[in-house]
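Figure 3 (text version): structure tokens given as input.
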């Protein structure tokens, strides 16, 4: 094992990008504190932004939608405005509570977001997609044979309508949005390359299926979801496509009952490709990559459940996750799919176990620091472990994150353990380490240009400096009915401040980050999952893996960046995972990245280059852009 030197890819430089294991537990286990983010450097990093010399103002989104402009003569949109943002070098200093309460509230009756201009095409962004990377060992790209065998799905499409609700403020916003759907649909995404045609067709279909439901436009009916899912699973270009049925795969009848119980009809591409490799005997390592929200969890869950001998009451499988939130979610999936078996599970996160009690559960799911503590305290025998799963494997192997802990755990396990590594991203340097961690593995990789999900419409919004970002966010939520959304920030303080201010403005908001107590974190995420809160303001702590189907918008309030050791470059992987919290398993979603100065603009450009995907610029001065944004959000709100 001496060759297991973790890769040193630089971490996203944000609070909570490390393991959220209890630092006290880690100190006990390692005798030293875990790496922490240097908050002073964090501030210095942002203030190191090169001053912007071109001072043409960008009128704020707020001024566009509220008519409360502080700029009496807005400058018309400039074609080069993406690189001529207004000066914003001052660091974000949250205004006092008094200042925030005296802030003029946007006019929420304004329906600028709510009106469509039928047939208007958006302007095209100028960033050129790079040449795709070399083909991986096993690709999830459809073969020509697969394309030819595509069955045509002919389910009927039903159209329903309901009467208009009483015109309260919220309902008026909803009615404005519903009007969009009744017009001939241009979803505004003609710039998105080959998928645009497909998306337009899908949108038209959505238009005819619009229910006009008054429940804030969330995924409005199961029938719609099933029809669209059947379409997607019959399209060889979709990551959800498969030729086979679950029944064709070597899955135990009790697990098949679990699959039916959770409502899965057909495997996704990653499930179809990975499961035969995973379940084959003798067990073999697997490194699997597939886009966010395409069903990797069920793939490794079916393998974990298949490899347990329920008669032996000792831990046999370990699943490592980067956060307690993801561990809890994964345990739930395992319990659901395994509900017709005798297999038991246990969470291994701070506060979930008792130090002197022997563990007799079959599958343990948790964060690495806790496992190290458990192994040190001999509460289970690591030599009985047969399968080690690393969910979000690139994160779990990252030396700047949890790589060292993961390697320590592996060293305690038997040499013939089956190593299963899954993620939506596997940067090159992590791939080398993954190869050494899981030797002779079967591999399923994506090209970099395939990593992002087509159904997520990626936008960026120009804001006027740091404070302009908050104004833009407030304006978005004031003006539009947005189902549920996640806002990602770099710092915990920013998350708390935004949550406070949005709450003062009457929105249903919570903030979640690593400084909160464990129980509180669980309650906050549960509240959001259950729809009690509509907006979750967070750090990278839930950037990966969290699966909440009704999330239809992700906001990158701060562009994710690597730390000082990464020369402050944009963190492309974290961006991909963050936006992947929407657009789950074929659903539509929208991501908006806030750009407030020259530096954040070039970070966005770098992300576009790396992913080969353009983000559509939303110029807040441009009525047409705002209307396109409104349409995108409406379509995302429909879900599918
Ligand atoms: N075969 C299937 N049929 C229908 N739904 C499925 C299927 N497989 C998974 N799902 C659903 O798709 C959603 C996304 O799955 P999952 O969370 O496993 O994605 P993932 O690939 O692990 O994403 P991420 O990269 O973000 O971790 C979940 O709600 C899951 O229940």
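Below: residues designed for each position.
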């Amino acid at each position: 094992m001496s060759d297991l030197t973790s890769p040193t890819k630089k971490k996203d430089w944000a609070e909570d990008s490390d393991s959220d294991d209890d630092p006290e537990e880690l100190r006990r286990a390692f005798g030293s504190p875990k790496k922490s983010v240097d908050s002073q450097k964090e501030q210095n990093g942002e203030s190191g932004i090169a001053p912007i010399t071109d001072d043409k103002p960008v009128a704020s989104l707020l001024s566009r939608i509220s008519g409360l402009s502080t700029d009496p003569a807005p400058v018309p949109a400039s074609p080069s405005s993406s690189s001529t943002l207004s000066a914003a070098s001052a660091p974000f200093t949250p205004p006092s509570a008094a200042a925030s309460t005296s802030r003029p509230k946007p006019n929420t009756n304004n329906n600028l977001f709510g009106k469509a201009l039928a047939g208007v095409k958006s302007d095209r962004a100028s960033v050129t997609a790079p040449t795709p990377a070399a083909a991986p060992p096993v690709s999830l790209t459809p073969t020509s044979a697969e394309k030819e065998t595509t069955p045509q799905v002919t389910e009927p499409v039903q159209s329903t309508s309901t009467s208009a609700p009483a015109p309260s403020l919220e309902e008026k916003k909803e009615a404005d949005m519903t009007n969009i759907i009744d017009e001939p649909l241009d979803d505004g995404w003609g710039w998105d390359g080959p998928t645009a045609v497909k998306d337009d067709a899908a949108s038209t279909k959505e238009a005819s299926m619009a229910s006009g439901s008054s429940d804030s436009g969330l995924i409005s009916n199961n029938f719609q979801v099933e029809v669209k899912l059947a379409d997607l699973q019959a399209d060889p270009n979709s990551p959800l496509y498969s030729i086979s049925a679950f029944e064709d795969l070597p899955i135990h009848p009790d697990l098949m009952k679990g699959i039916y119980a959770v409502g899965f009809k057909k495997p996704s591409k990653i499930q179809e490709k990975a499961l035969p490799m995973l379940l084959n005997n003798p067990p073999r390592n697997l490194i699997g990559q597939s886009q966010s929200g395409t069903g990797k969890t069920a793939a490794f869950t079916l393998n974990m459940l298949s490899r347990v001998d329920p008669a032996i009451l000792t831990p046999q499988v370990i699943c490592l996750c980067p956060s307690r939130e993801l561990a809890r979610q994964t345990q739930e999936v395992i319990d659901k799919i395994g509900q017709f078996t005798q297999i038991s599970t246990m969470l291994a996160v701070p506060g979930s176990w008792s130090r002197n009690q022997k563990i007799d559960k079959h599958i343990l799911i948790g964060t690495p620091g806790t496992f190290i503590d458990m192994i040190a305290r001999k509460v289970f025998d690591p030599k009985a472990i047969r399968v080690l799963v690393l969910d979000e494997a690139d994160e779990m192997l990252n030396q700047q994150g949890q790589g060292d802990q993961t390697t320590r755990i592996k060293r305690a396990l038997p040499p013939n353990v089956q190593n299963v590594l899954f993620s939506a991203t596997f940067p090159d340097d992590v791939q080398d380490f993954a190869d050494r961690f899981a030797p002779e593995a079967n591999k399923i990789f994506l090209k970099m240009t395939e990593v992002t999900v087509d159904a997520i419409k990626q936008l960026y919004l120009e804001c006027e400096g740091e404070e302009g970002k908050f104004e833009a966010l407030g304006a978005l939520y004031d003006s539009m009915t947005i189902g549920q959304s996640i806002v990602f920030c770099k710092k915990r303080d920013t998350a708390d401040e935004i949550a406070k201010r949005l709450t003062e403005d009457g929105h249903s908001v919570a903030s979640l980050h690593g400084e909160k107590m464990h129980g509180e974190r669980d309650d906050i995420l549960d509240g959001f999952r259950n729809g009690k809160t509509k907006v979750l303001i967070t750090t990278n702590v839930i950037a990966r893996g969290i699966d909440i189907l009704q999330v239809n918008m992700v906001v990158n309030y701060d562009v994710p960046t690597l730390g000082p050791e990464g020369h402050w470059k944009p963190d492309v992987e974290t961006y991909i995972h963050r936006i992947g919290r929407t657009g789950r398993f074929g659903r539509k979603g929208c991501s908006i990245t806030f750009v407030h100065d020259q530096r954040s603009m070039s970070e966005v450009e770098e992300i576009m280059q790396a992913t080969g995907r353009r983000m559509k610029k939303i110029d807040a001065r441009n009525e047409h852009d705002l209307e396109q944004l409104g349409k995108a959000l409406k379509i995302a709100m429909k879900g599918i």
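The first strand starts at residue 286 and ends at 289.
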